[in-house]
Amino acid sequence: MARSRYEADHERFRATCREFLHREVLPHHARWEREGIVDREVWRKAGQAGLLGIGVDPAYGGGGEPDYRYPVVFSQEIMWARATAPGFVAHNDVIGTYLAERASEEQRERWLPGLCSGELVAAIAMSEPDAGSNVADIRTTAVRDGDSYVLHGQKTFVTNGENADVVVVAAKTAPERGAQGISLLVVERGTSGFTRGRRMEKLGWHASDTCELFFDDCRVPAGNLIGKENAGLAYMMAALPRERLSIATVAVAAAERMLTDTLEYAKTREAFGQAIGSFQHNRFQLATMDTELTVARVFLDHCVAELNAGRLSVTDAAKVKWWTTELQVDIANRCLQIHGGYGYLRESAISREWANSRVQTIYGGTTEVMKELIGRSLGL
């Protein structure tokens, strides 16, 4: 990996991440993949290692580090360890950001220490069976009733949905206003009327628990409203550039790992009496992928610097998200082809990465939605 933008402190943090992953994650990861969920204990150990709430104020138990390069390093090391990324990324880069930036002081004191220590696991629930990229179509409603909101609806594809103790739920508090009538509410584990559906069996990311959530006359305290009522869409739009950048970070790191593994395989695997990497077609494929990843890394690093400076635009976030995730899928496909029959075995690392890569172009906004946003920025 090109690390010209990383300093000594980042490299020390990288060593901490790597040690944690090799000690607390990799020995159990195969079992988690079979079971479809990680142990709760790994969250607490991640908190003890200082890997949760990296940017959260130390007053709430966080790392107090606003430099986004630290979460980037964590994501890179997760991917280079071939571990499961969505759960930690969602907890840190999505939900943690919402609560740290939008929650009231009382809410921060109530939730952030647990999120930083790993005692609480967070999830965000936006997608529904009939509403994905277009949040205006969500049907979940929250009706104010005295000191509570009564929540009705269903959410799906919820990362950390089974393990979650706090769930940020997007619901319509003013349905007549469409997307402008969405609010964000935090639903806590054990709330009456809040139930979890089946653990979803996915093509990839098996250790990342994903499930459906149901809200049936679910009474949520009014004090669990995040920010202002009916301001949820604005909050979501403001947070999306960081979320999409986090997905792009995973994409580039995963693709780099796949290329490194494939390059090693191409040097050692022989056919017709010579290493398969010496054949011009394979050599050109590897050269092309290396070049593409170099270009992707430069743009990703630029976007990370822009986020740190508070300037990452919705358009650039859309560009880096769709370009890097489509590249990840393409590289996974080409690397699997070079591995041949061995790459098709479920036990091979490249087959798992191939499966994991596919959802990257879907969640956080599909490639098609990203291109639509970019097209609009061009005045089209």
In short:
The chain has ten helices and ten strands. It has helices spanning 8-35, 40-48, 69-80, 86-102, 105-117, 232-268, 280-308, 314-339, 349-357, 367-377, and strands at residues 122-125, 141-145, 148-159, 166-172, 182-188, 194-199, 210-221, 225-226, 270-271, 274-275. The model has no long low-confidence stretch (mean pLDDT 95).
Task: Provide an overview of this structure.
With 380 residues, the protein is α+β, with helices and mostly antiparallel strands. It has ten helices and ten strands. The protein has helices at 8-35, 40-48, 69-80, 86-102, 105-117, 232-268, 280-308, 314-339, 349-357, 367-377, and strands spanning 122-125, 141-145, 148-159, 166-172, 182-188, 194-199, 210-221, 225-226, 270-271, 274-275. The strands form three sheets. Strands 1-4-5-8 form a four-stranded mixed beta sheet, with helices on one face. A four-stranded antiparallel beta sheet has the order 2-3-7-6, with helices on one face. A hairpin with a 2-residue loop joins strand 9 (270-271) and strand 10. Helix 6 (232-268) runs parallel beside helix 8 (314-339). The longest helix has 37 residues, at 232-268. The relative contact order is 0.10. The mean pLDDT is 95.
Features:
globular, 50% helix, four-stranded mixed beta sheet, alpha+beta, 10 helices, four-stranded antiparallel beta sheet, 16% strand, 380 residues
